[in-house]
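Components:
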Amino acid sequence: MIFTIAVHAPAYASGANHHALQFCEALLRAGHKIARVFFYHEGVYTALSTQVTPQGEKNALAHWQALAEKHHVELAVCIANAIKRGVLSESEQKRYEQGSITLAQPFELVGLGQLIDAIAHSDRYVEFPA
Amino acid sequence: MNILGIISRPPYQDSHDLELIEAAMVAAVFDMNVSLLFRDAGIWALLDNQDASPLEQRTLSKVLTALPAYEVENIYVCADSMDKYALSGQQFCLPIIALSLIEQQQLIAQQHAVLGAQA
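Structure:
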């Protein structure tokens, strides 16, 4: 089956962000495909590049990056939700004349149409709310 | 393809209601058959004559009244939630259809995807 996953929860507010990651890993182990992981609402903070994880705590960003690298999963971040929360790609940093690029690689800022398109081409849509 | 957005959080406590309505509008632009279901404290978002300017937020009732322009005309409300908060359809900014829990179950079963899950 093809799945679209939406992550609404930031990494450190609840277990939901980590559950989403584990669910993605389980899907891929079981032979399913992930059309796109879409980060929405406060879930966009997952892609913040300036997070510093204390020693001994899990590094959610690194886990998502590893998932993307190992399985070529697309990590899409809602552009409207991201920029108002300070998660800026290089082009948005320039457009709004902000001091820093804060979007981690390989996350991409995309429009909501990318969520709807992924849902339309998936058998299942699963949200992980905050 | 049917897509349903469920709004169940109280309006203005965060930006989730507005961001979900925006997702519904984009889905409609992508030719999806979009419905919205308001339930629990989310039904307060439908109240007419809101003014969110003191909160420096966009007024949800004004945003919602733009839905018909996006051809989002299936606006459903949980009948139990209306009873709970003693609200009637006349107090809302849009024409609505009140649904029982069984009817909500049937509505959800007809969808390809449902947006707006609650933790």
